Amino acid sequence: MTKIELERDGRILSGFYEGYFVRLHDDSESTGGYLILLVNDLVAPTDGGDYWVEDMAELESFVESSRWEIEWVE
Fold it and tell me: C-alpha angle with apex 67: 62 to 70, nearest 5 degrees?
């Protein structure tokens, strides 16, 4: 399973949304959960989307079920 890293950009190397970039954001102060933000390019995105999950267990399950291998960007 890919290691969960919050507040960092990562490139999805395999799985659903392969080739896209993802950011896992702790949005607990605003929504009580976590945002999963997706874009096809970090500089000039033309496609993307987002998902919301309630807690860390749900976030881990989402990443696992998406079969993501993520390379985290510095």
Answer: 95
Q: Kindly state the tokens that stand for 65.
A: 């079920």
Q: List CB contacts of 4: < 8 A, sequence separation 6 or more.
A: 24, 56, 59, 60, 63
pTM > 0.85: yes or no: yes
65 within 8 A of 57, measured Cβ to Cβ: no
Is residue 48 within 8 A of residue 39, CB to CB? The reply is yes
pLDDT in tens, 44-63: 999 999 999 999 999 999 99
Q: Which residue type does 13 have?
A: L
Q: Is the pLDDT of residue 2 over 90?
A: no
The Cα 2–Cα 33 span in angstroms is 20
